[in-house]
Amino acid sequence: MRLTGKKAIVTGAARGIGYEVARRFAEEGAAVVMADINPEGNHSAQQLQRAGLAVTFCRTDVASNDSVVQLVDTAMELHGGIDILVNNAAVNIPGSILELSEEIWDRTYQVNVKSMFLLSRAVIPIMQRSGSGAIVNMGSANSYVAEPRLSAYVSSKGAILMLSKAMALDFAAEGIRVNCICPGWVDTAFNDSHAALFGGREEILKNIHDIHPIGRTIQPVEIANTALFLVSDEASAITGAGILVDGGYTIK
Ligand SMILES: NC(=O)c1ccc[n+]([C@@H]2O[C@H](COP(=O)([O-])OP(=O)(O)OC[C@H]3O[C@@H](n4cnc5c(N)ncnc54)[C@H](O)[C@@H]3O)[C@@H](O)[C@H]2O)c1
């Protein structure tokens, strides 16, 4: 049990990677608040509760400061502290800059990047008071390399990597570590609208060896296990790192 007694917030936890992160953290002894804009997150949390895990759902729009403050208040009322924050929620709306509206551009940056500013600035003072904390921001292989017709998303993910480094630098001396996980293609519904522009998921997967040298997509639990390592004491000297979990996607 690597997270016994720890109190965590995981955003975008209704499904996909965030759900697996919440599950793995709770299995390792953490009390987890699962935040998501999708009310289905309540069912996701109930599923984990039935398995005996200490999770609570809190409906949250991470792009709204009022909603984020309410999330932090709820976590504090429930658990009396916050040791771990995983900023995972994001949107992925495809298009070149000529295909995207200003609204889509703004929404992408609000959900993917500004949310990390809002939630981290609400949580870090709590971590400062306790003298320690671990934050994981979910980047992407697109924090390092671009893809066609994905301009708002890839640029937001580039920003997240550098924001993680800036936060790590500012709070390292206070025992707060900040790292950025950069996944390759993880098998969730997240990529469907982008894949549709290139013939659909099945068509693209025919060439998966060209994309991921390991010859397969990545499972959400593989990202969750990386997050678990990064927030655990085993990673006590790791901060400001971009950790690629990309099946070799960015090797060449
Ligand atoms: N799936 C991939 O291939 C992949 C690759 C690299 C990085 N990532 C990153 O991993 C993270 C999770 O992706 P996923 O594949 O699990 O996607 P997903 O679509 O399965 O889950 C994303 C979750 O975020 C929630 N969300 C969206 N907007 C929100 C908001 N405003 N407030 C609160 N919650 C909101 C959604 O409701 C959803 O439950 C994202 O940051 C994504 O950029 C995914």
UniProtKB/TrEMBL annotation:
<dbReference type="GO" id="GO:0016491">
    <property type="term" value="F:oxidoreductase activity"/>
</dbReference>
<dbReference type="InterPro" id="IPR036291">
    <property type="entry name" value="NAD(P)-bd_dom_sf"/>
</dbReference>
<dbReference type="InterPro" id="IPR020904">
    <property type="entry name" value="Sc_DH/Rdtase_CS"/>
</dbReference>
<keyword id="KW-0560">Oxidoreductase</keyword>
<dbReference type="GO" id="GO:0008206">
    <property type="term" value="P:bile acid metabolic process"/>
</dbReference>
<comment type="similarity">
    <text>Belongs to the short-chain dehydrogenases/reductases (SDR) family.</text>
</comment>
<dbReference type="Pfam" id="PF13561">
    <property type="entry name" value="adh_short_C2"/>
</dbReference>
<protein>
    <submittedName>
        <fullName>Short-chain dehydrogenase</fullName>
    </submittedName>
</protein>
<dbReference type="InterPro" id="IPR002347">
    <property type="entry name" value="SDR_fam"/>
</dbReference>
